[in-house]
From TrEMBL:
It comes from Melaminivora alkalimesophila. Keywords: Cell inner membrane, Cell membrane, Membrane, Transmembrane, Transmembrane helix, Transport. One of its GO terms (molecular function) is transmembrane transporter activity. It is a multi-pass membrane protein. Belongs to the TRAP transporter small permease family. GO terms for cellular component: plasma membrane. This is TRAP transporter small permease protein. The chain crosses the membrane at residues 21-43, 55-71, 91-113, 133-151.
Length: 204
């Protein structure tokens, strides 16, 4: 279990790193959008490449941040019934969802998406719009994003199993008002302390 918890912490750090810097993609898309508007108004000139690179950047930010969103528990949840259940029942529902919904969907997307990406790369497909961009760079975001999401799902699965076994913190606990980095560091510190205490208390 300790090896799996170490893997979970590594995945959390990876998605926290990605989420922390993903905002720059949104910033770049905003700058390009503003520049395109200014050039169009002043010089009466526009380019489909400017428009397409904006949704390329948006697609990248949306897809690769999915794992970070799961880490922060910000995906949409239906809590009308779930909130009335016991904590252990909620954890079991999450485990079922990670195993039988999230993981299969991610595997299916990777199974279908990777060959499509390879095909786009080999063909050098370009947008049908005049002055459009080559397509494969935006397709890269699909397998990368779903791979990060699947990894984070496995990390959350490990946390919930550890909680049920009594060797991990409550994965459903409230998030603090600290920054993302501080909250993650605090969670990892508490998890490490609980693991150390569990190891000390174990019979020799």
């Amino acid at each position: 279990m300790q090896a799996l918890l170490a893997l979970s912490r590594a995945i959390d750090r990876l998605n926290a790193f990605v989420g922390r810097y993903c905002i720059w993609l949104i910033f770049a898309a905003t700058v390009i959008s503003a520049a395109n508007a200014v050039v169009r108004k002043i010089f009466n000139y526009s380019s489909n490449a400017f428009l397409e690179v904006q949704w390329y950047l948006y697609a990248w930010s949306f897809l690769i941040a999915a794992g970070y969103t799961l880490l922060q528990r910000e995906h949409v949840r239906i809590d009308v019934l779930n909130s009335r259940l016991s904590k252990r029942t909620q954890v079991w529902i999450d485990i079922f969802g990670f195993l039988f919904f999230l993981t299969p969907v991610c595997i299916l997307v990777l199974w279908l998406g990777v060959p499509m990406l390879i095909s786009k790369f080999q063909s050098g497909e370009v947008s049908g719009n005049p002055g459009g961009l080559i397509r494969w760079p935006v397709w890269v975001a699909l397998p990368v994003g779903f791979a990060l999401l699947m990894l984070q799902g496995w990390s959350e699965l490990i946390k919930r199993i550890a909680f049920l076994k009594g060797v991990g913190p409550d994965p459903m606990g409230r998030l603090t008002d600290k920054s993302d980095e501080e909250a993650l560091i605090e969670a990892l510190r508490l998890q490490t302390e609980q693991e150390r205490q569990a190891g000390t208390a174990a019979p020799r």
